[in-house]
Amino acid sequence: MSTQWEVSGRRLRRGGLLTKMMGGFALTAVITLAVGWLGVSGVEQGAAAIEELYKRQLQGVSDLKEAEGELLRAAAAQKNA
Partner of 28 at 20 to 30 A CA spacing, among 10, 71, 75, 80? Predict the structure, then answer.
């Protein structure tokens, strides 16, 4: 009595070179797609984290710079008045 794995193994050994090569290329393509998908999703998560960091940290610095400019303009206007 043969198991399914033994039958598959015999069929693979009897398969032609073209079948084996196409199977290898298909497996390589699937692995490449999986790694690419993981990479793209990682980059998207990193971009979202950087954008959140900008909103929380650097936007305050920009607002502070703008407030400083307004303060200098107000001081100059008061001095000229």
Answer: 10
SS3 of the chain: helix, strand, coil, percent, to 5: 95, 0, 5
**pLDDT score of 1 more than 60:** no
Give every CB contact of residue 12 below 8 A, 6+ residues apart in sequence: 20
pTM of the model: 0.50
> Residue 16: how many CA atoms within 13 Å on its side-chain side?
2
Q: DSSP letter at 15?
A: S
User: Is the distance from CB of 4 to CB of 12 less than 8 angstroms?
Assistant: no
